[in-house]
Amino acid sequence: MSHPQATGPTDLAAARRAGWLAIAAFVLLAVLTFWVTRASGHPLPGDASLHRWSVAHRPPTAAAAARAVTDTGTGVIPYAVLLVVGMYLGRTARRRCAVALALMVCLGAGQALRYALMSMVARPRPPVGDWVAHASGWSFPSGHTTTGAMTAALVLAALALGGRGASRLAVVVIALWGGSVGLTRVYLGVHWFTDVLAGWLLAVGWVSVLAWAYLRWAPTVQDPPSVQEEE
């Protein structure tokens, strides 16, 4: 059996950083949400101009590529990614399943939080005639954006906290994917940019809260797994 030890000072410092990042992200999200609700469904400064630019610079090939990227931010793909990461991080079959399940539950809870905020704000989407992709529900925050960014952040956090780390190239690729899903939503005409910004802030805030909680309370040092665990 493993025997967890106390969290060290390095972990406490990292927990404080994660906590402050969560506070900053949620404060900015609260300000943005208040601004959107005060606008009564109208686009905020910059939303309309970015929307017009996207509609005017959308050849079929670019639109098809954007749809391919945007499809990776919904459905089973994010959960499949987290399943693979869980299988990679766990040292035993039991731990692999536990890590994968924990990551998927964290994503599901984050999506539920996003849905609650979306229902509360009830912001209309851009005009339907400008869409070149399927969309449903209210606009703020963007669901694809939140899921993509949250998945990318969970992957990076899990790799770092699990002691496996990732190369700089891998970090850049994962982060770019998480961000690009949101940008495609604006390019495809189904979201305002501030919907995407809200999704990013929600993802950063939620994963930072999870990292803070893990660093504060989860065991950081464990004995090698027993023979029974390996089986």
Written description of the protein model:
- With 231 residues, this protein is mostly helical.
- The chain contains nine helices and no strands.
- The protein has helices at 9-38, 47-56, 60-70, 76-89, 93-121, 143-161, 168-187, 193-217, 227-230.
- The longest helix is centred in the first third of the chain and has 30 residues, at 9-38.
- Residues 1-7 and 220-231 have low confidence and may be disordered.
Map the helices and strands.
Elements: H1 9-38, H2 47-56, H3 60-70, H4 76-89, H5 93-121, H6 143-161, H7 168-187, H8 193-217, H9 227-230
Label the structural class. Answer: mainly alpha
Q: Could you give the distance between the termini? A: 13 Å
Strand content: under 5%
Rg result? 19 Å
Q: Note poorly predicted spans.
A: 1-7, 220-231
What count of helical segments does DSSP give? 9
**What characterizes the major β-sheet?**
none
**Average pLDDT for all residues:** 89
Secondary-structure element sequence?
Answer: HHHHHHHHH
The count of DSSP E runs of length 2 or more, i.e. the number of strands, is 0
Helix content: over 70%
Tell me the overall shape: globular
